[in-house]
Amino acid sequence: MQPNNKELLFSYGTLQLKTVQLETFGRELVGFKDSLLGYRIKQLEITDPNVLAISGEKYHPIIVATGNYQDKVSGMIFEITAEELSQADKYEVDDYQRVLGNFASGRQAWIYAAKD
Fold first, then answer.
1. pLDDT of residue 12
2. Across all residues in the chain, what is the average pLDDT?
3. Has this prediction a pTM greater than 0.90?
4. Cβ neighbours of residue 4 closer than 8 Å, sequence gap 6 or more
5. Mean of the pLDDT values across residues 4-15?
6. Residues with Cβ < 8 Å from 39, sequence gap 6 or more?
7. What does the pLDDT look like over 20-40, one tens digit per residue?
8. Exposure letters 14-26 (e unless 16+ CB within 10 A, then b)
9. Roughly how many angstroms between the first and final C-alpha of the chain, as a whole number?
10. Which of 2, 28, 31, 103 is the most exposed place for a label (fewest CB within 10 A)?
11. Domain boundaries, the chain
């Protein structure tokens, strides 16, 4: 956990959308650009009707660990509360798992990656 009860959450997909943020967190998130190391992006077909209704997108990106730090995924790191992190867990479908990732900036943040 970060100081002041803050968590860092990385988004490379739909959590960057204002509509998804408002529906999931009740507010627009503020963040900064960064690159996740050791992952690449694939596409995942979403079948969960709630997630489809919120995002409006049938295919969501999903990241897969490669173990090669030359592989990078660009996105945004958002500062959120522990409660908001729980709300993000509910938004993500079962194909994702939340783990800590390492970033080009030297930070660590929560990411949603493909389950092993």
1. 92
2. 91
3. no
4. none
5. 90
6. 63, 64, 65, 66, 71, 72, 73, 101, 111, 113
7. 999 999 999 999 999 999 999
8. bbebeebbeebbe
9. 24
10. 28
11. 3-114
